[in-house]
Amino acid sequence: xxxxxxxxxxxxxxxxxxxxxxxxxxxxxxxxxxxxxxxxxxxxxxxxxxxxxxxxxxxxxxxxxxxxxxxxx
Length: 73
What we know:
Blueprint: H1 9-25, H2 30-64
Helix pairs in contact: 1-2
């Protein structure tokens, strides 16, 4: 992921999983753990924003009639 582009949801998720693995391993100092936790929170917030934007786009498309709802068969 380059510094000049917004990461994709998949890239954010992969980074977040890496942070979780480091924290779960239990090998970090308290300071390192806090930094990793802070990074994880930031990644989670970015991912949540991307999901909210995607949901808004889907709702917009549904309302505009450009797509049809899936049948519940």
